[in-house]
Amino acid sequence: MFEAEVFITFKEGLLDPQGIAIKGALVSLGYDNISDVRVGKYICIKLNNQDKDKAKSELEEMCAKLLSNPVIENYRYKIMEKSSE
Amino acid sequence: MKFGVIVFPGSNCDYDCYWVVKRILRKKVDFIWHKERNLSGYDCLILPGGFSYGDYLRTGAIARFSPVMNAVEAYARNGGLIIGICNGFQVLLEAGLLPGAMVSNKSLQFICKFIYIRVENDATPYTNLFHKGQILKIPIAHNEGNYYADVKTIQALNKNNQIVFRYCDEKGTVSKASNPNGAKESIAAICNKEGNILGIMPHPERASERLLGSKDGRGIFESIIKWIESKEAN
User: Fold this and answer.
1) Please, what are the domains in chain A?
2) Hey, are the CB atoms on B106 and A18 less than 8 Å from each other?
3) List of residues 6+ apart from B27 with CB closer than 8 A
4) pLDDT tens-place string over residues B114-166
5) Mutate to test the interface with B, among A69, A73, A74 (most CBs of B within 10 A)
């Protein structure tokens, strides 16, 4: 059993209007040390695989095929072993 | 001549498209449920607007893997006519049948209103009854209509004349002010290099009767019909 945390973010240079709006709100709250805010997605996946390498290669495929759109997004992930209770 | 309107779970402009083809243009049309795998016998496929799969993950991202999409891809490769409207356009982008992607409108708001678009390419199966520079009044209704592609892709779209419509004002001027959603180069519609696939954010099916405030969108469907008829005549 493995648990994967997948983070999907907009590519550098792509306008993130949500990030800009949040930055504006934070600055208006007085947090004026902010140079940039970007919003992404966090997806948690529990995997039944026994083999870590297999789990990793499947996860890689999921990220490229469905979870992210390579035209606009990057992805990274962490994969951790979990006890199966 | 027969049209097919593909219905994904969450499509909601399917009946509007069906209505225009059947009741206004008097052509045969079927609804095609997204589980269908056989698309033989159709002269044009319409991927309608809506919120397929609730727009979960990204617009069109899950519909793109619906069973029907394998057949749609094969249909596209054979040169079949496919028009994706709004969410249908988003599905075509996710499927890689058209280049680029949609991101949230710059304003972060869902925009539902009449806008103007300018014909940039009048030689496609979808625009052959228009002339270059013609201005259409047609509604948009979307949250993710902000077309994005990298510089190289945009250059290729321009070079190959793949930009079919641009957002403009009522005089036909393309500017930042007349761009409703922040789309790169005010792109409202593109086609593939071969020209058989069109993706369009505005809704021609909502502008095909005077009663609805404009019938400028009807010309897109009539262009398709003319194109098919001229093929049939040969």
Assistant:
1) 2-81 (3.30.1280.10)
2) no
3) B1, B2, B3, B21, B225
4) 999 999 999 999 999 999 999 999 999 999 999 999 999 999 999 999 999 99
5) A69
